[in-house]
Amino acid sequence: MHQYSVKNHPREKVIFCLAAISIFFAPLLSNLLKNNILKNLNITSSISISAFSVFGLTYFAFNKYIWRWVGKYINYPNLNGQYNVKGTSLKNPTGKEIEWKGTVNIKQNWDKIIITLQTNNSSSKSLSVISGIRHVPTDGYQLSYHYENSPDVSKKELKNHEGFCMLDFEENLNKATGHYFNNIKDRASYGKMVLERIDN
Questions:
Q1: Which of 158, 146, 165 shows the shortest CA–CA distance to 186?
Q2: Contact yes or no for 149/135 (Cβ under 8 A)
Q3: Residue 11: which domain range?
Q4: Does one domain contain both 99 and 135?
Q5: Does 174 share its domain with 112?
Q6: pLDDT of 107 over the 90 cut
Q7: What is the number of domains present in the chain?
Q8: Torsion angle, CA of 74/80/85/91, rounded to 10 degrees?
Q9: Average pLDDT for 127-153
Q10: Within 10 A of 109 (CB to CB), how many other CB atoms are there?
Q11: What is the spatial distance between Cα 48 and Cα 10, in angstroms, rounded to a whole number?
Q12: Pairing of strands 140-151, 81-91
């Protein structure tokens, strides 16, 4: 997985808030541990819980789970899931339009994401060179990313190549339409695609 950005989302402020919460609760948790738990167990110890430890646990919980619950209130989409995809290669070496089908898998945390595409002929994996999401009011969300594509070794007419993809998700995040453009040096082609969510 790699880092990505969400336009107009104050990620630094969220981290600051998590740090402030950790600093506030660390001494309270230390006192709870010392005056209640350890005392009831008749254990004498000077063990304390550091703000750094609390921050680590808080960040982990927010990064893995909490952001999914609050995301819809801060325009932070949860794209996790599997999608059926139908694509059309509009320009390619054959000179003809080519229909293709596949499956897109998106794995996303608050701070990292990865998008993979599997078709009958090849597979692609998103790169961290360019990856971001922006909210388009009344329309939904736009996901853009740079990818690399590795064809099946048996498809000798296909070559490894890189490209760029832009997907426009509906507000409910169940469907998306988009376009892809392959690196002209590796494989001068482009096309369109339609995604429909299978599951979360």
A1: 158
A2: no
A3: 2-73
A4: yes
A5: yes
A6: yes
A7: 2
A8: 60
A9: 82
A10: 18
A11: 32
A12: unpaired
- Give the domain-ending residue among 73, 100, 126: 73
> In the predicted model, is pLDDT for residue 168 greater than 90?
yes
Q: How far apart are the first and last CA of the chain?
A: 18
Task: Locate 8 and state its tokens.
Answer: 């107009």
Q: Identify the three-state secondary structure at position 126.
A: strand
Could you report the per-residue pLDDT of 7-36, keeping only the tens digit for each? 988 889 999 999 999 999 988 887 776 666
Task: State the Cα–Cα distance between residues 67 and 45, nearest whole angstrom.
Answer: 36
pTM over 0.85: no
Task: Single out the residue in 10, 39, 73 at which a domain terminates.
Answer: 73
At residue 11, what is the residue type? R
- What is the rounded average pLDDT for all residues in the chain? 84
- Give me 151's structure tokens: 């064809």
What percentage of the chain has pLDDT greater than the value 70? 79
The reply to whether 68 and 140 lie within a common domain is no
CB 190 within 8 A of CB 198: no
CA distance 74 to 62: 14
Q: What whole-number distance in Å separates Cα of residue 159 and Cα of residue 153? A: 9
Does 180 lie in the same domain as 94?
Answer: yes
Residue 100: pLDDT over 60: yes
Provide CB contacts within 8 A for 123, sequence distance 6+: 116, 117, 149, 150
